[in-house]
Design a protein that fits this description.
With 319 residues, this protein is of the alpha+beta class. It folds into two domains: 147 residues, PGBD-like superfamily/PGBD (Muramoyl-pentapeptide Carboxypeptidase, domain 1), CATH 1.10.101.10; 114 residues, Glucose Permease (Domain IIA) (Distorted Sandwich). Helix content is 27%, strand content 18%. It contains eight helices and twelve strands. The strands form two sheets. Strands 1, 4, 5, 6, 7, 8, 9, 10, 11 and 12 form a ten-stranded antiparallel β-sheet that branches. Strands 2-3 form a two-stranded antiparallel sheet. The radius of gyration is 21 Å and the shape is globular. The structure holds zinc ion. Zinc ion binds next to loops.
Length: 319
């Protein structure tokens, strides 16, 4: 069936053997899901959004000479400013702030600096992280002390310089505390997601045909024998654990960045609904419940909450 899809898409894109949708969507998904060329996943903001990250982008656009108000609402005027900025920086001018646009917007700030980029840091420290600080746009000793405190809490080098990693920590609410590929404190969500069943292979890709191609595979299958520990791909909260048609026993974990991960066909729960879990924590044992052709773990990633859009887990995790 995959071959049939491949033939259909041949006129549009080169068809790879593994995942047809990847080759078709490689360019657009990169910006949609916020992946920068450096590999970091930034929150995506676009026209219509209204949140703290929009304010941060507005401060940073001001730093780069674009004129716009610090409203926190992504208006059509802001979209024009983003497009103008993207053209100046040689980025694809789609007016959406994704990974590569974020990484051109951020600039290093340190003690003694003055300007809108400093204001962005102070605004995040005050309004997102509740550090006692005023938005003066002047990087003085108070700002330095708050930044180093933030860096220590996130296992960043506490040098008081807001460079790429510290910006990423601030904007994404990410921590760098493990250094390794798994582990961490309960509820702490990191910039990197990890394999939910380390050592076991992918047996079916995201986007492949199901039910005679009337629908797509919304996750990735991992070939786990029944009883394999299933691990949370990142820190977060178990928002649901129960039985779902087709999925069998399944668990949804909510993470930072508006991501939710689902683990399905389980044989046993190791956590309860509402529980805070750590990245790499065993949350269940895999099984063969629900509809399936044999024991495996169905792993799904959704962007925008439990009923958000399913995305290819390969954009977050190296399997
Ligand atoms: Zn599946």
């Amino acid at each position: 069936m995959q071959r049939a899809v491949c033939a259909l898409l041949l006129t549009l894109a080169a068809c790879g053997p593994a995942d047809d949708l990847d080759s078709l969507d490689a360019e657009t998904t990169r910006e949609v899901y916020g992946k920068a060329d450096t590999g970091r996943y930034w929150p995506v903001i676009r026209q219509g959004d209204s949140n703290r990250n929009v304010v941060t982008a507005q401060y940073l656009l001001r730093h780069h000479g674009e004129s716009l108000s610090l409203t926190g609402a992504f208006s059509s005027g802001m979209k024009s400013a983003v497009i103008g900025f993207q053209k100046k920086k040689g980025l694809w001018p789609d007016g959406v702030v994704g990974g590569n646009t974020w990484e051109k917007l951020i600039v290093p700030v340190r003690l003694g600096d003055l300007g809108w980029a400093v204001g962005a840091v102070q605004d995040l420290l005050l309004n997102r992280y509740a550090y006692g600080i005023s938005i003066t746009k002047l990087y003085g000793t108070t700002t330095h002390n708050r930044v180093t405190a933030f860096q220590k809490a996130r296992c960043l080098n506490p040098d008081g310089v807001v460079g790429e990693d510290t910006w990423y920590g601030l904007v994404k609410n990410a921590s760098f505390c493990t250094g390794g590929s798994s582990g961490g404190a309960a509820g702490v969500c990191y910039g990197t997601f990890t394999h939910p069943a380390p050592g076991y292979p992918v047996t079916s890709e995201f986007g492949t045909c199901r039910d005679g191609c009337t629908r797509r595979h919304e996750g990735i299958d991992i070939g786990t024998p029944t009883g394999t520990p299933v691990r949370a791909a990142n820190g977060g909260v178990v928002v649901w654990a129960g039985w779902a048609s087709g999925y069998g026993y399944a668990i949804d974990v909510s993470h930072c960045g508006s991501y939710t991960t689902r683990y399905a066909h389980l044989s046993q729960f190791k956590v309860y609904q509402g529980q805070t879990v750590a990245r790499g924590q065993t949350i269940a044992l895999s099984g063969n419940t629900g509809v399936g052709t044999g024991p495996h773990l169905h792993f799904e990633v959704r962007k925008g909450g439990s009923w958000g859009t399913p995305i290819n887990p390969r954009y977050l995790i190296q399997f």
